[in-house]
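TL;DR need structure tokens for one chain.
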Amino acid sequence: MLALFGSFLCCFLLISGLTGKGEDPEHEQELPTVIIAILARNAEHSLPYFLGALESLDYPKQYISIWCATDHNTDNTSKILQQWLLAVEQHYRSVEWRLQDEPLSYSGELGPKHWPRDRYEHVLKLKQAALNFARGQMSNYILYLDTDSILMNNQTLKLLIAENRSVIAPMLDSQTYYSNFWCGITPQGYYRRTTEYFPTKNRLRKGCFPVPMVYSAFLIDLQKNDSKNLEFYPPHPNYSWSFDDIIIFAYSCLAAVDGP
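>> reply
TL;DR here they are.
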């Protein structure tokens, strides 16, 4: 069942830098509407690359709405985002802007890389707010993007939609051992190394594969029946794993497949 309805990893040259020509506007057919959800914190260093790639997506902007939230910043993230949104707002279907200037850190936070429970909970609530917004707007899809996820292939959104999956992610390249997916997960919700991981990450396997975890960049098809049960916050009533936003969503995908 997970192979049909769970979290999916798509790794067929999506982030290889290949590009394609845009469609002739005179021949554009009615396309699905997409909410792009952006959660940013202290992202000044990556925003120029991230926003440039976002603007370059080969998908008509009149079918895209931007939902953007930023908070707890100690750099110019909020200013950069606000200036960008003002510059591009007229081109997109709509823009939803959520800014929180204070406080600059979470209670008990030891540094920007530290994740106390309050931080996880806040991120979960923001992701849920974006999901509620997309459902309220009757959007067909919602694409969650971290600001360090640079979509180098401008066909990414179209390719993801074409796969017709409930939850799907482009495989992101990195210079470390990590990507934006897990191939295995333990019964306690922790990472489990599998023999499929490195062949997939190194693109020795190409295609669309079922995996138990995707994060950082993923698309939800809001038209699918099973996606109607997906939630970020509060966690599923039966959830007992670590209080972590990506693990909570992975469990939500499993619960959506299995039913209430």
